[in-house]
């Protein structure tokens, strides 16, 4: 049974967003009351929403990925779809990184910035956690020592790795053995969709708290020194969505603006909460109705949450150039080519929760030998940039299963794809 986000939810989210801005401005003007309201009302309301989202992600990803792989049919079709998915992900995120570098070089967001007068304490905790990151360690870290512990800690890449192995092994079992378990996992997936639907009723309150804390803490005047970076980020996200993703959609035979209208509530929710995990169930459901078969959408979208972060990749490039320019560090063509390679690695594996892009940016700066302390400057206004970045991540992951389905010759007209049945797990992906 599909999950439909009530139209009134969008209105309530907008009300929560506007109310949060207003309350934040008022609290910023009356600092004697600010600490109490933030500590006792706004921050708990926002934190509760984020915790609810984190609670949903792991079981949902595991169940959807298992059902998507185990129900994919032949291992040949599964391997082909998986290979095409990863080729597409790495291609589009590499384009996003290059796009961010081009925008950063053209608009020079860090030119004229004086970090020496506004620099906060160095971000040593983030740097220390990522300074040893390299390809070998990253690959080893993906494999969990204990899958239960990995699930408990919310390590999405490790959960995805195990889910892929589990789904592949399940698909190899005889039909009479695998059908009951696939049915159970399908039930878990459908139940988590319902849980998400229930949690969404709280989202306006959570967004109210998150936005209120941001505005109350920093105020509108504190945003002015970094207004150029904020503005360029919004422009870059918009241009990438229209020019790059719009072109990809056109090549795949997808009506881009029609797709935007179809997922407008998900984009608004992701933008407001800065958490892409909030809309994963809706995306899977809507992309299936839009024409991507359930096995493809259930596999591609969860994978995309770790490997297809267009917005995060774009901002990693833009933020890195901003910090380099602000410190007066001239990066030549060879240096920026190396940055592309570094960011292709560091942009993978981000969880769909607010602020993880912080760690990605820190890892990129560390690997490139650039001043990690510059992250502290962005920290104050990062949430304002995290919002459009997250929305772009969601848009990219909505388009991905449609592209893969078209590549496989399986894309149907919107509304013609019937939900996958647990009783028929051998739905073929082959054209």
UniProtKB/TrEMBL annotation:
- Signal peptide range in chain numbering: none
The way it spans or sits in the membrane comes to: Multi-pass membrane protein
Q: Mention one GO biological process in which this protein takes part, according to its record.
A: dicarboxylic acid transport
Q: Which GO terms describe its cellular component?
A: plasma membrane
Cross-referenced Gene3D superfamilies = Sodium:dicarboxylate symporter
Tell me, what's a Pfam family for it?
SDF
What keywords are assigned to this protein? Cell inner membrane, Cell membrane, Membrane, Symport, Transmembrane, Transmembrane helix, Transport
Subcellular compartments: Cell membrane
At the top level, the lineage of the source is Bacteria
Q: Which InterPro entries match?
A: Na-dicarboxylate_symporter (IPR001991), Na-dicarboxylate_symporter_CS (IPR018107), Na:dicarbo_symporter_sf (IPR036458)
Q: Spell out the protein name for this chain.
A: Proton glutamate symport protein
Which species is listed as the source?
Pseudomonas putida
